[in-house]
Amino acid sequence: MSGVVVAPARNPGETRQRMVALVQSRGAIVVLVVAALAAGLAFPSFLRPGNVNDIIIAASFLGLVAIGQTLVVIMGGFDLSVGSMVGLGTVLAAYAAPYGVVAAFAAPMAAGLLVGLIDGLLIVKARMAPFIVTLAALLALKGLAVMLAGESLVIADPGWFGRIANGQWLGVGNLMAILFVAYGIAALVLNRTRFGAAVFAIGGNEEAARMLGVRVERVKIATYCVSGTLAGLAGALLAARLSSGLSSAGTGYELQSIAAAVIGGVLLTGGVGTMLGALSGVLLLGVIENVINQIGSLSAAYQGLASGAFLLLAVIVQSGLTRQRAG
Fold first, then answer.
1. What distance in Å separates the CA atoms of residue 260 and residue 277, rounded to the nearest whole number?
2. Which of 83, 134, 195, 316 could form a disulfide with 254 if both were Cys (CB 3.0 to 4.6 A apart)?
3. Are 74 and 199 in contact (CB under 8 A)?
4. What does UniProt give as the signal peptide span (predicted)?
5. For residue 120, how many C-alpha atoms fall within 13 Å in the half-sphere facing its CB?
6. Nearest Cα to 220, choosing from 305, 127, 146?
7. Distances 77 to 1, 128, 210, 234 between C-alpha atoms, Å
8. Percent share of the chain, pLDDT over 70
9. What pLDDT is attached to residue 1?
């Protein structure tokens, strides 16, 4: 009798679902590469190392915010307070910078943690909608930033604080290194820890997650705390980059971070998403901004138009892919 083992026939439906899942999670990477190559053909200076470095550094602040926003959206929520938290973070960092580098980073990050804690508690304990809670925080934080600094607050001597955001290490910009390290850590947390599994479980089906023993309330509060802390960190780095605190800094980041996450394959309904996809979405928005700057004759309004078009297309594609997986 022969010892040949016949492999079972692959189910066509299963193969289709795998392909759909792959496109859903990695499609933004393909679009980013195609967009970058097309921009490189249209503008010879686009792919030069200096310009690529500028794109990544400019996107690093939104990128840090998008990490926290991605976690929140995968969990099935929204955090509209992050943009104003970035602005307040720049102001707090400017106030704290004369007391040293540690104080300049600790103050905005602690404030972000506190805001995230309050948001999380209101959402979990008071059972308020995330949209309402974080929108109220957006307005309150924006007002507080203006009260503290007016339009801007200049850091007279940023010293080492400024060097962190403007310096390089082994030829790599510090901001670029911080961005990629942060996404690497976030990807490990999301994919390799119980916390990450809980975030996916809550976003997929909150009641089922609760029945499985997931501490839903704690995870929700912790996720909003992470989002607020990262927004505070982004504000501190932006203050170090600009040597000033700007109450208007971070305006629009709340929507741009959601757009980056969705373009990167995160479902607005929760339960699906990757950090690599979110990073691709952030960089794609950065490429769009840079291309418009390369053209020169177009106003900034075209950046919003292009970003909105990509977001709409991403939502349409995601909806179609979700129906394909469900079928």
1. 8
2. 83
3. yes
4. none
5. 22
6. 127
7. 60, 12, 17, 21
8. 84
9. 46
pLDDT tens for 195-228 read 999 999 999 999 999 999 999 999 999 999 999 9
Give first-to-last CA distance, the chain, whole Å: 42
Question: From CA 89, how far away is CA 187, in angstroms rounded?
Answer: 25
> Other C-beta atoms within 10 Å of 49: how many?
8
Q: In b/e form, how buried is each residue of 240-266, taking b as 16+ CB within 10 angstroms?
A: bbbbbbbbebbeebbbbbbbbbbbbbb
DSSP count for the chain of H helices, then E strands: 13, 4
Q: CA–CA separation, 125 vs 65, rounded Å?
A: 25
Residue with tokens 């394959």: 265
**Cβ contact 91:200 at 8 Å:** no
* Whether pTM exceeds 0.85: yes
Query: Taking the CA of residue 15 as centre, how many other CA atoms within 13 Å lie in the half-sphere pointing to its CB?
Result: 4
Please give the structure tokens belonging to residue 270: 């929760």
In eight-state DSSP terms, residue 5 is P
Tokens of 210: 């609760």
The better pLDDT of the pair 149, 134 is held by 134
DSSP 7-66: PPPPPHHHHHHHHHHHHHHHHHHHHHHHHHHHHHHH-TTTTSHHHHHHHHHHHHHHHHHH
Q: Which long-range contacts (CB under 8 A, 24 or more apart) does 303-306 make?
A: none
pLDDT band at 298 (very low <50, low <70, confident <90, very high): low
Q: What are the chain's domains?
A: 45-326 (1.10.3470)
- The mean pLDDT of the chain is 87
Pair of tokens at residue 293? 């700057």
